[in-house]
Structures
1.
Amino acid sequence: EAGVAQSPRYKIIEKRQSVAFWCNPISGHATLYWYQQILGQGPKLLIQFQNNGVVDDSQLPKDRFSAERLKGVDSTLKIQPAKLEDSAVYLCASSLSGQGTDTQYFGPGTRLTVL
Amino acid sequence: QKEVEQDPGPLSVPEGAIVSLNCTYSNSAFQYFMWYRQYSRKGPELLMYTYSSGNKEDGRFTAQVDKSSKYISLFIRDSQPSDSATYLCAMRGYQKVTFGIGTKLQVIP
């Protein structure tokens, strides 16, 4: 079974530039998550999709971050414009249903450096 | 007060030692408790989950939950150098999972 795929693996940009990350979840997984993991911290949920609908985006900085999952499969996360404090690893995860003991499977992450 | 508290370490132990990792939480709505292992430059991978007070064992790993004290633990027996990683506790209420900051563990050969 193929895992969660993410690209790019690394990205370096200057502040005020825009950047986009892509995620392809495990086939058949209805739930997709984007997390931000700042160095030395645990992952923080940015947005959770159930199929192509948003379940939780309470911690997404909506003035600069956006995400979509148009066909209920792969997803993109965009930052525009980027700030220095956005430097982090952006993790995508997917799971079957998003509830109970449902297991989240994580991708390798995209490491973003904002200069 | 953070919902989930976890000592970041680092924790350094000799090979073969028993390792104890802990988290406390404040949100009574948490029902499911998980431990993830994260190697450097990799995504977290699920080690164990439980949803009731008590112990759950899987090989060298034992997860323990005490809901009355809002305290969870992960024990690693006969620790190996390959166990060197960051261990994240995670908890879920209805849907959203909240992670601790992770404890960095180094097992020295």
2.
Amino acid sequence: ETVMTQSPTSMSTSIGERVTLNCKASQSVGINVDWYQQTPGQSPKLLIYGASNRHTGVPDRFTGSGFGRDFTLTISNMEAEDLAVYYCLQYGSIPRTFGGGTKLELK
Amino acid sequence: EVQLVESGGGLVQPGRSLKLSCLASGFTFSNYGMNWIRQAPGKGLEWVASISSSSSYIYYADTVKGRFTISRDNAKNTLYLQMTSLRSEDTALYYCAREEFNYGSYYFDYWGQGVMVTVSS
């Protein structure tokens, strides 16, 4: 099983700040990583697929990058609506595995 | 508009069974793979199972293999999850999610609102 480790587990941010979230795979998964956002009480929403492709309607302040074992989600200009938990998911092997999540909070 | 509506959850005793359903609308259900993903209270997401559009390919997480069965009825636009030998650790909100395949990438582009399963005596 490919273990996905996200860091940090939580982060205090400010509006307008640049935020970088990390996800590390226990073995290479190529570009087979998605990122999902979950706000309180809501179902997860797709942000990024294939490591770097922004899903339809996702604001361009969200950028995904990475290959192999190391992946990053960057929010270039934090907005209040971005306060959420973010999960990476690898689909390069079965079982598909999610990272433990990174929770973004306000300072 | 794509909609996924889960049902069938509830309180069940350990060792008993439960069957979840996910009714899909707003798209051609038979063209898409589908998945179940769960989230224990206050915890992260866990992929549970997937089924291809024609049911040819089925996969499970190790934590549910041999106890859960994913299936679908394309004529009824419905995805199922038959859960047996339920354990307290199966307590979670269960989401169904549509799987899209695009440019070599897989992703879950639509999710239901989830259905709660509580396993307790």
